[in-house]
Automatic annotation (TrEMBL):
Residues 41-102 form the DUF3592 domain. This is Uncharacterized protein DUF3592. The keyword Transmembrane helix applies. InterPro entries: DUF3592. Keywords: Membrane, Transmembrane, Transmembrane helix. The chain crosses the membrane at residues 7-25, 119-138.
Amino acid sequence: MTRRTRWTFFAIFTTIGVAFAVAAWSDVSTYRTLYARGVHTEAEILRYEGVLGRRGTRWYPVYRFTTADGRSVEVRSADSASPSNRPRGTRLAVVYDPEHPDTLRTATALKGGVGVMPWFLVLISLLMWGIASLFLMPKRETSVLQNR
């Protein structure tokens, strides 16, 4: 493997590791922001938006709530839900960021904590950085016996 190829692989795996670390930080940052300065209110489920995936359709509720300053906001949840468990018109407690009202979580989800996803993303990130470090190791000398 040439020196250039090794540096290319190092750059690729490092970049993938950084991407996973950023995703983990984004999850934790959202949770911390809502926990620290989030405003509690009640929201109504207006409708569900379906997203087709490999294993079927995932349904995301669209909430409507009124901010503390009186604005009516509609936000699609980042968390999927079952329409049969929470039908349209259901009202539930939510927490939103007053600076960015489109950042919203249900109060129950926020109370549950940050969850395992950031830990999983950090683990993948560390794995990518570990693989990247292998490409920085010096090239091993071939023995005379292997060249025969």
